[in-house]
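G.,

No rush on this.
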Amino acid sequence: MPYFQITNPLHKKYRDKTNVILYAHSLIGTVRGKSANGLMIHSKLFNVVAIIDSYSVGKKTSEICQGVGSDIPIYKNISDALNNHMAKAVIFLIAPSAEIEPEIYYAIRHKLDLINTSFSFIADIPGILELAGDFDVEIFDLRNVSRQQAYPNVNILKRKSKVIYVTGTDCGLGKRTAAYELTMTAIDQGINAVMYATGQTGLMLGEKGTVVDALLCEFSNGVVSQQVCQLSDMGYELIFVEGQSDIFHPANSAVALAILHGSNPDGLIIVHDESRQKHKGFEENSDLYKMHPLNRYISTFEMLSLPCGPVYKTIGIATIGDENIKSIRNIKGIEDFAIADVRQEGGAELLIREVAKFTELRTCVEL
């Protein structure tokens, strides 16, 4: 079975803030636009200079995108953006359909690299690789990872790093944001920490990892296990594993379980929105999409622990806003957990104190 070295395909060409255009029709300011928000706020690789979304032309990103403090111009098409900005690449946050193929060709002819987050690959468009070669353009289909095949590494039981799985009770809650903020806060406090990216946005932020939902199900646990072991071998004290979906999601619970068992974590931070009754995006659908209460998640994670590893104990709860913090504190059995919004001042620090206590890692704050 091949052994896949943990990496980030974008590091092949990008290391610092590179000017990019986001192609995100109908996504800006919506829950489905969370990747755009993450790139605008946190990316170490890219500087977003323009956005393509014909539905949002003229709107301010600081007003419609949660957590984004700057106003990035929004245009109808790539041509309009290039008339006003210099860029090296276009990041496609929507699938490369026939409708947008002219924009893809236009980008190539203007020597812009193409970074694609979809399950449909730009490289599969007939003749596109030859055209890209003619203009010295690179194509990065971030979800083209099906060749990554591995079985779990037994060294996951002997790793020296402490592993925290940042999971959640739904999609679109901010698991990636929480993992990133916690990692950066841990580093600021003197812990040798790293974030293991499990989605395409995490890679575009600059972290190492792979897009787990695009792996073959048979090998997803193994790839996660192998790569977490590699990070441990690199000498990191603390690994924050970015969660995807959730263990009870009717549409894609498999990826959450793959990351859970593959990383076999010491503890968990659970991201939760107490105001949600059904999974986001399925509010009008049947009872199939009802959500369990938070207590059920906490108890189920412990039951899902592997017999050969640590018990999956919840360390704290990350959430969104003061109202949620108050509501969660009133849940019976949750009162003693640390609860915080990592986007608020002091929120990440509060959770890091709990993580440090749980893992017995010392921070410079304690010195």
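When you get to it, here's the other one too:
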Amino acid sequence: MKLGKLAVWTKLDHFNSAESALFAQRIEQWGYSALWQPEGFGRNILVQSGWLLANTSKLIVATGIVNIYARDATAMVGAQFGLNEQSRGRFLLGMGVSHAPVVSSMRGHDYGKPVATMRKYLTAMRGQQYQAAQPAEKPLTIIAALGPKMLELASELADGAHPYNVTPDYTAEARAIIGSDKLLCVEQKVILEKDATTARAAGRKQIGTYLALVNYQMNWKRLGFDERDWSGRGSDRLIDSMFAWGTEDTIRERIQQHIDAGADQVCIQPIAPSGDHAQDLAVLEALAPVR
């Protein structure tokens, strides 16, 4: 699997199946290396990945992230190996422990200690025997990682890390921890909007859910933010750090900062200036590797 420098990260649940296939085909035509999707409470993201892989020819389809509490290690390996065999190696599995409110209150599971739970799960995956036609190459597994201990685990037992809601400074720190031979695929939200008030309002609509999640708060604290930044609707300082907004050149500069800091791939999340959940095709076209 050869990852290009630029990918798209977005949720497709508001599309029907035909529309999601057309979106993936457009991303592929624009030259983006991969299409990353989160898992929520809509489609089964592994089923959706199979659909997108079947409707594209060279695009890598990645999960950012699959919730490990939603399926056991046997089911995860079966999907990972099967999708890679079917697509000739174009499926990239990104997994994570999610967040306590999602796992406990919404899914009804006991939320364990994140690093210990992920270690146990990765070890279980390694012990599985996949008894079907094998993919040509060993499938890759990366994990959602924010804190240093999870990054160390990504280096030890996975093929890399997929950080979310981070800065280029974090990217540099993550690269130092996971080493030079592991994948570092970093999410970055982008808004093609020069007006600060409009751009920040759009950002606040998008980031609101994350502000109350302890995993992100702890990582923001490590990056030098404090409770004043994530309380309420989020400070301008936090919004400006999480969202690359402005002109095309300004956004490209932030993307390059991540690459210079050690990112193998920057996964851009296209936020509409209105803050609505629909993808902003204008910014994706503007940043497209092939136009």
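The CA atoms of residues 210 and 216 lie 7 Å apart. The chain has one domain: 6-190+248-287.

Enjoy the weekend,
O.
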